[in-house]
Structure formats: C-alpha cells, structure tokens
Specification:
The chain is globular and about 65 Å long. It has helices at 2-9, 15-18, 23-34, 44-51, 56-62, 65-81, 91-107, 112-119, 126-150, 160-176, 178-184, 191-210. The model is unreliable at 1-10 and 15-20 (pLDDT under 50). By secondary structure, the protein is an all-alpha fold. It folds into 2 domains: 13-63, Arc Repressor Mutant, subunit A, CATH 1.10.10; 84-210, Tetracycline Repressor, domain 2 (Orthogonal Bundle).
Amino acid sequence: MTSSKQAKRSKGRPIAAKNGVGREALIAATRKLLQELTPAQVTIAAIGREAGVDPALIRYYFGNREALLFEVAEQIAEHEENAAPREDLTPTAQLEAFMHQTFRFTRSAKYMQRLMTEELSSAKSAEIQQKLREWQRTPVAVYEEIKARDGGEALDPFDALFLHLAVVGISDFFHSGAPVVKMLAPEGTDMAELEKRYEAFAVRLLLDGLRRRDV
C-alpha cells in the first residue's frame, strides 16, 4: 500500500520542487553550461547534474528543454535591453551603441548564436518558433528606427536586415571561429584583450562604411 502511494507521488511534483529548488536554479545552471558547452551538449541530464536536481524538474517548470533554453536566451537579451542606447544620443551614436550591445549579447554565452540558429530555430513548439521570429525581427526594427531618425543626414541609406546579419556574423565569429582566431593570433596573446580590440575595430569598420561621404 505504501509503495503504491509513493509510486503515485513520484509522478507528481518532483521532491526538489517541494524543497525549494526552483526555476531560477535551473536557469542559472543552464547559463553556466552555455558558457562551457555547445548547445547540443546542454542536455536535460547535464542541466540536472549541474543544478544538483532531478532532471524531471525541467519538465515540471518548463515543459521541455527547448522552453528552458528559450527562457535563458530571453533573460540574457532582457538584461541587454535594459542597457539599450538612450534616445538622447545622435542616430550615429545610437547605432554604435546598438552594435556594441549585439557584441555583448553574443559574448553572454559562448555559443549564443549557435543556440539561436541550431537549437531554437528548429524548435518543435510553434509558440517558441513564433516568439523567436518576433524576437529576431526586433533588431532589424531598431536599425530601421535609427535610419529614420537620421533621415540621411549623417548616414548613407542602408538595408536594416543586411546590417543586422553583418553585425551578428561579425560578432559571432570570434567565438564560433575561436580555433582559427587562436591559430592566427601571436603566441601568448591575451584573448580577452584581443576580443575587445576586435569589437572596437569591427564596429568602427561598419560605422565608417555607413557614414555619408559628402558631410
């Protein structure tokens, strides 16, 4: 009789949930793993081990792994959005700040862009797919707004979608292409310092390419 009741309880709320191990602990564990592993390696079992809980808690709180990964990415993005460029900046300064924001978002997890393209973009959930589609369109809309604010005064006309793709690709390669970067960098190079210099160079390169030549 007792064992039967225990078996029934085991299908309900996981014990760790009763003991106070909640959503934030799982999110923190997932964020930590994404700094060290490729998204494909951040499995339900790996997250459970990192958080020190039954992996069933992921299903209890999030429904599935995809929903957890999406929430982690959203939280990271929201942190960056809280530091969004001020409206009192000139359009050119706002454009520069927004590019740096994309670099910070890419740095927030070692394989952030891979998480977006390889994991979340192929999510089975229609809801996650729709949320991701809307989320991905946001930076393009920001570039469009900056272009409209400038009105051709300091910046040449540009395609907001192409600019977004360029910034994402350039910001991501330092991480996705890390083996090549390390191979080409002089021996003993401080990679953190090199990354800062790379970001400054890339943003300046893009900005210079967008400036009007007759002003």
